[in-house]
Amino acid sequence: MFKYFFSIFLFINLNLISSAFGAELDQLFSSLKNAEKQITAQKYEKKIWNYWLTDGSSETSNQKMKIGIRLIQDGKLNDALILFIKLSKIEPHWAEPINKMATIRYLQKDFSGSIKDINLTLKLEPRHFGAISGLAQINLAIGNYEDALKNIDYVLKIHPFLNIKELKPMILKMLKKLQI
To answer: Which domain holds residue 64?
Structure first.
């Protein structure tokens, strides 16, 4: 009987902790969206990335995330991809391993695979400005300039100080040339 009540107590407390982190993340996004200066936005962006990178259900999963990032930095993309695929299966509700898969596939020029992973990332975290920026870069690379522009406009509503906004004038210029 004690074991049963302890399990319920643990489940309720874990849900409360998860809810508190969700509320904190919501607040960070609100602060990011309403930031008036780039330096302030960068502070919120860093906190959001920290949340995304450490949102595994265990310290083991969080360590695997760090290892995978190190593999990417060392240029071991295939090893990193395998690690993140496994991690995404262990942690199906964690968006960041899937986003890392999208990043690796982008670096490997597998744009369709990257887009598939970005869509999965955005199902789990629709505000993932990194994934949306990646989608804009893919659309730019494959010549879908109007979609790239839409991606940039959308992501800037979430994070108004992202550097990707610098691509907007170039894309508008390309679109103008195509219309001539």
So the answer is: 54-179
As a whole number of angstroms, the distance between CA 180 and CA 174 comes to 10
The torsion angles phi and psi of 143, rounded to 5 degrees, stand at 85, 15
d(CA 51, CA 24): 10
**pLDDT tens digit sequence for 66-113:** 999 999 999 999 999 999 999 999 999 999 999 999 999 999 999 999
Q: Structurally, how many domains does the chain consist of? A: 1
Give yes or no for residue 2 having a pLDDT over 60.
no
Residues 80, 107 contacting (CB under 8 angstroms): no
Q: Is residue 2 part of a domain?
A: no
pLDDT range class, residue 179, cuts 50, 70, 90:
confident
Q: 60-87 burial string, b = 16+ CB within 10 Å, else e?
A: ebbebbeebbebbeeeeeeebbebbeeb
Total Cβ atoms within 10 A of residue 40: 14
